[in-house]
Amino acid sequence: MKIAILGYGTVGRGVDQIIAERVDGVEVTRILELPDRLSDPRMTASYDEILADEEVELVVECMGGVEPARTYIMAALESGRHVVTSNKAVVAAHFADFAAASVASGAGLFVEAAVGGGVPWIASVEKVRRIDDVSSFSGIMNGTTNYIVDAMRRQGADFAEVLAEAQRLGYAERDPSADIDGIDVLNKTIISASVAFGVACERDLPASGIRNLTKADLDLFAARGRTVKLLGRGVSEGGRYAAAVEPVAVAADSLEANVPGNFNLITAVGATVGELKFYGQGAGSLPTGNAIVQDVLDCVSGTRRPVYDFTSQLAYDPTLLRADYVLRTAAELGDAEPYGPGAVVVRDLTAAGARALLDEALATDPTTFMAALAVEE
Amino acid sequence: MKIAILGYGTVGRGVDQIIAERVDGVEVTRILELPDRLSDPRMTASYDEILADEEVELVVECMGGVEPARTYIMAALESGRHVVTSNKAVVAAHFADFAAASVASGAGLFVEAAVGGGVPWIASVEKVRRIDDVSSFSGIMNGTTNYIVDAMRRQGADFAEVLAEAQRLGYAERDPSADIDGIDVLNKTIISASVAFGVACERDLPASGIRNLTKADLDLFAARGRTVKLLGRGVSEGGRYAAAVEPVAVAADSLEANVPGNFNLITAVGATVGELKFYGQGAGSLPTGNAIVQDVLDCVSGTRRPVYDFTSQLAYDPTLLRADYVLRTAAELGDAEPYGPGAVVVRDLTAAGARALLDEALATDPTTFMAALAVEE
């Protein structure tokens, strides 16, 4: 099969390399690149030229960002070409449109690489759903923030210091907002909930990040046998679902607490299979490239053809996600009990209610940090 | 598709239940049971009767043990019927014969449920191998021994006490030898190495268990930031491979160290995807039943048809697995350095050499316990 790659950054180059070195029967014949970077005879700056090439049957989109990725993906699907994408932003924003276009034209839509890098998460959730209802999912879905929190904990370093090191190593962007404010995890959570629950997931989910996490916060939780991880979570029961992104204070002896560096660990709970966890590199040229090539091979071999049918009647109900929340803040909060020096716990909030309370506290104390308390097993 | 279940114990009943409640298009029409237990119109005590039923296209074998399971599986494959089995003992003993019969008749051979219960390990390794060479695998593959070690560590209890509790809960057999001496893990390691490396794995692998593990041993390792887990491991490089089963003293902050209760966690390392870990229930009616039904669905839908081609020229080379070994023993050992009270460390042994040293020490001190020291990252 002849395929085109849109975007020749880290991931695009990884895909090209893996296919050239390790895959028979698939050939990258076209690459979309910027006009001033056309360094390879396969490259063009014109997407129309790629669309006009009847031999190209599949398009790998790894440009990132919403536009022009959205337009290119829709055009590919509408022309009957299969699409494999690692672009979480565009899938989170337009999953339902892509799914409908895919169903209409019969073209395949593969999004494994958009969540969890090399972790075989999306295909595994689809497989679980052949037999089980997925009652919940939860996980570390962002390598950058896990690297930061893990280094803060193991080295006793503070946030700014570790972030700077992560930027130096290329694990964090120069503008780290998408990672540290939970936007990247929000996109991955929307995609995961859509696949896990078979619903076009609500996009306006409660989300907060780790921008204000300090070494003292980690010490406070460590003294109570916990550490903090940024988790994307979703739950479904009784015809309703909810999802959220927030720092969670997990037990220090949980698997999540011990995930090192920039790895990801994502859990699905199925009715008969119980708890399944999937761990691997959450980013990087070769792991993410591997996830894309696995999707390409599924498509070429016909062994997997995901059909995203978002006609489910599940209703979004944010009250399904409840927890006790710890806030380290100078703000005065009603209904709060002491948790530790400078910190209080507020009992039994919804994730949405907690996000509103965080905003209230941030208005008084912009350094406020909030984490949900994971229920002890 | 009409299928037969051979053996109606915990797993067989789980398969029957899951198919009846959750799967369309598959029907259990025949069940092989003992003559005095024929409580269902689908049951027969005659395998010949099942083989004579032309409508049965697939046989689920979950009887356990080597015979008559081997004879029944061979007969099914030779008659062109697909086989799905959870029986690690018979697959470890006769994988090459089954694979050859499967290739000859074109019938499918599915062994997901033989390793790791509900953990999607075998299919995941096959998927990794579409792109990557698997350079190594390693994991907790036995829920009973993990339950024992985890309870000893968390509750500070001793081996015999926890074993008795595990037997009471049904996690351990009345005769626990297969679990605590590493035989069960040996079978799973042979199967995993065969799938991961594409070779009919040597069966005479070094193997030891946790029968002699004491609370004092765990305390000794805990003081050095480690805990003990029984691991099956394999490695392949330069046209050679090795595998072994032994207790390993892993870092206390590794994921392996923190696997609770009777869960399994198995790791594969691929060239491009890096480290992948898979976690789930290692046993039980519904998780193992789920793994079997996933195999059945792969077969029915045609989405996965494993072909085990064991013509690889990989040579078994036990010198590939080397480590430092700690022995808690009253025996006098040459080349040993002190490790702690009553314990010594012997440097750079092969797994086979360590197993021989353990036998030597056991001859003097039958309470000797040995564990490999995992390399610190």
From TrEMBL, chains A, B:
Q: What pathway, per the record? A: Amino-acid biosynthesis; L-threonine biosynthesis; L-threonine from L-aspartate: step 3/5; Amino-acid biosynthesis; L-methionine biosynthesis via de novo pathway; L-homoserine from L-aspartate: step 3/3
Q: Which residues form the Aspartate/homoserine dehydrogenase NAD-binding domain?
A: 7-112
Pfam families according to UniProt: Homoserine_dh, NAD_binding_3
Identify the EC number(s): 1.1.1.3
Q: Does the keyword NADP apply?
A: yes
Q: Which UniProt keywords apply?
A: Amino-acid biosynthesis, Methionine biosynthesis, NADP, Oxidoreductase, Threonine biosynthesis
- Gene3D superfamilies, alphabetized: Dihydrodipicolinate Reductase, domain 2 (3.30.360.10), NAD(P)-binding Rossmann-like Domain (3.40.50.720)
| N-terminal signal peptide | none
Q: Which reaction does it catalyse?
A: L-homoserine + NADP(+) = L-aspartate 4-semialdehyde + NADPH + H(+)
Q: Which GO terms describe its molecular function?
A: homoserine dehydrogenase activity
Domain Homoserine dehydrogenase catalytic, chain residue ranges per copy: 120-297
Keyword Transmembrane listed? The answer is no
Q: Which family, according to UniProt?
A: Belongs to the homoserine dehydrogenase family.
Per its UniProt record, what PANTHER family does this chain match?
HOMOSERINE DEHYDROGENASE (PTHR43331:SF1)
Query: What's the protein here called?
Result: Homoserine dehydrogenase
